[in-house]
Design goal:
Shape: globular
Radius of gyration: 17 Å
Strand order of the largest sheet: 1-2
Order of helices and strands: HHHEEHHHHHHHHH
Distance between the termini: 48 Å
Bound molecules: heme C
Low-confidence stretches: 1-26, 28-33
Structural class: mainly alpha
Number of helices: 12
CATH topology of the largest domain: Cytochrome Bc1 Complex, Chain D, domain 2
CATH class of the largest domain: Mainly Alpha
Mean pLDDT: 86
Length: 213
């Protein structure tokens, strides 16, 4: 028990001071006032006041405009461990199920402009991959599922305006962090695509969608 506590303490100490302070401050605040608004403020400490994302020790993804069904599914997946991330596992386990819908609606309604920040990727190539795919590498057109403007629909996420470094990290760690589920999980759909894209192609498509509003 003590060893686990020590390990957890060391892990926390390793986080950037921003995240450490934000996490504790938010947890205390949300504990005092269990309301939805307090919970949303807590999310925004890390995800940005307008849900636009944040460049810190970790890149924290944009939530503004995200599809509610997708956002809800991710919170459930973090809480169950199907999607692996230690920061969001703790956050998600602290969100009462009855609040998830209101939180998802709130972020969906936010319409902040893309935060930007280059990925160094080739935007022209990214656009081509997004719109037509790479048939010779078995990469489908992203637009077929994510929509022509990358806004997503239902359980398919919005990619428009997402931070490029988050997109590249997500695509390159997919099998490790997102597809631990038993059969039937939606994350399995992305597995072949993430394996067939080269790092340069990931940066290119990330650069392109990150500029879309
Ligand atoms: C301490 C910082 C922190 C707080 C507070 C926080 N998040 Fe996160 N969130 C992160 C990080 C870091 C990631 C990226 C994790 C990953 O790569 O899987 C993330 C990822 C997410 C994702 C996945 C986004 C995507 O595009 O797949 C959702 C959804 C999310 N957070 C929702 C929330 C909600 C809702 C709250 C408030 C209840 C919240 N977060 C509070 C740091 C935080
Ligand atoms: C057959 C449909 C389909 C196609 C084609 C597709 N995706 Fe996806 N994508 C999905 C689904 C479904 C998810 C959500 C998976 C989950 O819930 O974990 C997703 C998730 C993602 C995510 C995670 C977003 C986030 O916020 O964490 C990224 C990034 C992504 N796709 C990029 C792409 C790119 C780039 C392409 C084209 C090269 C592409 N996708 C093609 C269905 C598709």
């Amino acid at each position: 028990m003590a060893a686990i506590r020590l390990r957890n303490a060391l892990k926390l100490a390793a986080l950037a001071s921003f995240m450490f302070v934000a996490g504790n401050f938010g947890a205390a605040w949300a504990g005092e006032n269990g309301g939805v608004q307090a919970k949303i403020e807590y999310c925004q400490i890390c995800h940005g006041q307008s849900g636009q994302g944040f460049y810190g020790y970790y890149t924290i993804p944009r939530l503004a405009g995200q599809q509610p069904d997708y956002l809800e599914a991710q919170l459930r997946d973090y809480a169950s461990g199907r999607r692996v991330n230690s920061v969001m596992a703790n956050v998600a386990r602290g969100v009462p199920p009855g609040m998830i819908g209101a939180i998802a609606t709130h972020f969906h309604s936010m319409n902040s402009p893309p935060l930007g920040g280059g990925s160094g990727g080739n935007v022209g190539l990214g656009r081509q991959i997004f719109e037509t795919g790479l048939p010779e590498s078995n990469v489908p057109a992203c637009s077929a599922c994510h929509g022509p403007e990358a806004k997503g629909t239902g359980p398919i996420p919005r990619l428009a305006g997402q931070l490029p470094s988050y997109l590249v990290n997500t695509l390159s760690s997919w099998t490790r962090n997102r597809s631990r589920e038993s059969a039937g999980g939606l994350a399995a759909i992305m597995v072949p695509t993430t394996h067939n894209l080269t790092p340069a192609q990931m940066s290119a498509v990330a650069a392109y969608v990150s500029t879309l509003r």
